Amino acid sequence: MADCARKGRTRDSMDKSITLPPDEIFRNLENAKRFAIDIGGSLTKLAYYSTVQHKVAKVRSFDHTAKETEGDPLYEISVQEEITARLHFIKFENTYIETCLDFIKDHLVNTETKVIKATGGGAYKFKELIEKKLRLKVDKEDEMTCLIKGCNFVLRNIPHEAFVYAKHADSEFRFQNTHPDIFPYLLINIGSGVSIVKVESEDKFERIGGSSIGGGTFWGLGALLTKTKRFDELLQLASRGQHSSVDMLVKDIYGGAYSSLGLTGDLIASSFGKSATTDKEFSKEDMAKSLLHMISNDIGQLACLYARLHNLSRVYFGGFFIRGHPVTMHTITYSINFFTKGEVQALFLRHEGYLGAIGAFLKGAEEDNPNQYSWGENYAGSSGLMSVSPDLNPMQRARSGTFDMLEMDRLERQLVNLPLLQDPSSYVPDTVDLTEDALAREYWLSCFEDALDGVVKRAVASQPDLPQAAERAEKFRQKYLHKLQTLRHQPL
Amino acid sequence: MADCARKGRTRDSMDKSITLPPDEIFRNLENAKRFAIDIGGSLTKLAYYSTVQHKVAKVRSFDHTAKETEGDPLYEISVQEEITARLHFIKFENTYIETCLDFIKDHLVNTETKVIKATGGGAYKFKELIEKKLRLKVDKEDEMTCLIKGCNFVLRNIPHEAFVYAKHADSEFRFQNTHPDIFPYLLINIGSGVSIVKVESEDKFERIGGSSIGGGTFWGLGALLTKTKRFDELLQLASRGQHSSVDMLVKDIYGGAYSSLGLTGDLIASSFGKSATTDKEFSKEDMAKSLLHMISNDIGQLACLYARLHNLSRVYFGGFFIRGHPVTMHTITYSINFFTKGEVQALFLRHEGYLGAIGAFLKGAEEDNPNQYSWGENYAGSSGLMSVSPDLNPMQRARSGTFDMLEMDRLERQLVNLPLLQDPSSYVPDTVDLTEDALAREYWLSCFEDALDGVVKRAVASQPDLPQAAERAEKFRQKYLHKLQTLRHQPFAYGSLTVRSLLDTREHCLNEFNFPDPYSKVKQKENDVALKYFQKVVMSLEKLSWEQRQFALVKGLLAGNVFDWGAKAISDVLESDPEFGFEEAKRQLQGKNKNLTTTRYFCSFTFIYLGPPHKCALFFVDNSGIDIILGVFPFVRELLCRGTEVVLASNSGPALNDVTNSELQILTERIAAMDSVIQTALKEDKLTLVQSGSSSPCLDLSRLDKALATVVLERHTDLVVIEGMGRAIHTNYYAMLNCESLKLAVIKNSWLAERLGGKIFSVVFKYEVGRWWSVTL
Q1: Cβ within 8 Å of residue B471, ≥6 positions away
Q2: Which residue of A72, B58, B466, B751 lies most exposed, with the fewest beta carbons within 10 A?
Q3: Of B262, B268, B309, the CB nearest to A212
């Protein structure tokens, strides 16, 4: 899957035709029910609930009333089919929406489904298309409610969902433990504009503030200033620019720091201040960088003020401005550190892009009580968090042209803390974090690679009577090897 | 002066040569000392301290040991030269700096001055030029400290310094009262960037926040987007634009309001959001407007968050982004209202541009203890607040090409609140705010215009022996007329426009042209005449029964108040019919006021039936002549006889025919010589004369001489009498005091009488007992 996505990613991302086999993306569609869709300004997120039939190994004790013979095994092993519940989330560009809807329609077997929950600004725009194509009634859900519901869900169910971003640290991402109590928290959603939402419990949240200076402002002003129309390209421009040629710094006014006020010389006194009085031409890169700093710092300050005003220490950032972009995660993190003097950390979410879709899905599935179960991320069916610095391989991470997936298995039993844990909120199960220990990471990745042949052999041997055991084992080998290779480059 | 500035303003503001005569701008330069300069990004503000020599009218009692001749005047009037201290502040474009420095150098006589205090970003840049030109050492002062010092100074010393801006209201500017306690407050300085400063006391402030999105961002991004390089032009572009064609509104995303989050459809969801995905060209106007909204809203939200975090309710905005620009004042005000739901008001300052210069000056003058004095804005020497909507006359307000001035007089005495004010922080001296009442404004402006010829004639007549009286009087006429015309178009130029400010401006202009006391001779004559009747009046009162006497006293007080040269109706009569006497006045009053019997009832009720005599009565007196001598003194005499001590408060300086403190000293001595009650009271310190600290026909109870306040407290004053139209109707009509008070006046203006529901010569007799009840007749 990830392999295919990879291939797609290396193609021209402006290509509007789907080059990926959709059946590898919309998995288990034949059993799908409870659809939800979140259509944003540029990306569509689809969620559905499905059942997966898969083999499980069962053990059964022999009847011990019969006389036991020496050499007889203690219990009997059998492979059985079992059906489990799985949540599928797929993200794709809005341009693919029609093709995707067609594909879904052709493969949707389950006829019980009558309704599709929809959220996001685009739900309004694409309502008719969806109703026509899928013959499902579009049932609109409040965008913010969905976002918060989704956020609560991932914070509760996905360990290491939230992370701190540190550009220059050994490990770019530092994952946070799932707190047993996720409330209260502040969610700063940076879409076109900014919404600042205080979440106090599962059902109680309030939009306590907002700003019109958001992702749309970066994009819009950036487009006007640089004639670059694409958001990702603007971010790339910014990452190469020097803001100090456009911004007026404290030292430009005072010749150095303004010490009595505690302002360092390099502090930006006035964003774009130099372009007010200078007649020279500014480079696109420099203007984009200045704009990025201006917007990130502003949001950072607002976030920090609202956090202080409401006495909140957990502040999550989301929205398309953030969504995995190292550049914006870095500037936001920097700004929060600056304004709170390190007291508040900017937290980001691995599955931030799915929050709305998850929330809309949960709204539709309320009768199934999804919150009473525990859910686990299925690593085999999920694309990982996307890469690193845009300089490395910009095209690789141009997520605009790709499909991205998240799958979650419903666990049969609800999982909770061991009540004897001394401090559940600081408990870390793993002894060594390989993301932070490069030597150990290298050792263990090689170790698992070396052991793979043995595992494959063992797998084949375990099913002497079942069909295609060798082929399936080979597929497993390929997939796991690819995951290991991916992890070598993107340990996160 | 303002005249010249006006002419300059209508010229092309890009013209770099000085077209104004600099000697009308840098006034009193020859005596200047203590210079301070604040050089900003585009404007220079110069401050200096100077002394002004001007004429004052002095009265001196004749030597009474010599035999008095009938017909000899009571006292002698002389015009003397007096030197007072004045602060000058001049603002001009940085391009003029060299020319201005040359002019200063050529005219600076005082050689004691060795240092010039400098602040502002430009101080650094122009240091060498200043040192070379002026041969003064440039001594740099911290910019923020100067700004805060200046802000404290204007908030404390200039009434109506702060105002609220309301674009669509009847009156664009609503001025705030000077709070006795100005701290704590938040100052949002929007220069290139934004500084958010919490000020807790004179010396304690902290920059609690800031933002890089400020005036420089508007200017810089605006220049990049519109290719318009001038800040003022960008603002004009913005004022014509439609932000909704560039901004993404809530309704653009959701088709309408997002009600569950309380977001209206017209709210800006994303500034410049539409330019992200639309390929069309946007107009310069629309982009400038969108940018303006973006920046103003952002600053508004930050200001409101910091105010809430620090629990501050007074938030002042300043810096070049704001500086009198109606467009930015409007957007900032809108934003603050939006974010605080009206709980916090955005406040602006009339002299905001001068704060740094004032502060730098104060730093340099610390040894002179400027904060121990009170200061008053000189309306004659100050340009007013600049205009209104930029659409009206953009060039007129293109302040970049002009000179702007502020002059402040050092008042000889420190001014404080009347300690008996019930709530000093909500006290408003003026009864009608003419900035908010267009009809009243029109009436009074015309009224003062009509009266101008008479004032000019009076001024000339008052100085028969002095040179160029006619020319000076004509100059006065021109200047005051121009001020009136300015006020007709910009009523808010000097804060709230009130009858008081119109009167005070006239006094300032008269002084400006050396007419310190045009009524001195009239007053002298009236006093002489009235004194001759004093004993007769007292004797006739003595003959009356107790009850009749109380009635007669009140009637006399009111009749005396008819004699007012400030009222046009009376000055016309006095001019044409000098025989119009005290008895005639009483008859007139009787005719117009059938209810004087009721007056008598309340009068008696007040003074007699309610408990024991008062400990001490404070009496704010009005006119000289019949009013003070035949009206007030018999009344005072009665109070003294009842065992009540009396404090007579009169003006420190002349205004119309109001009796001044020095005149009253002489009058009282003369009355004492004739009357044993007064004599004894003076001797036993039961009758005290104090000066009010004012030179106005009106009365501001929040700016009174400190000595008066002390006496009021020491004597346990429990009755305040305020007499006259200026003091009891134009001002203080609604003033609430902690003790019994009596406000009385005869309405000598038919328009005002009609407004109050009466006729000309109707009587206002307003008795109030602290906060409990009041009676108005």
Answers
A1: none
A2: A72
A3: B268
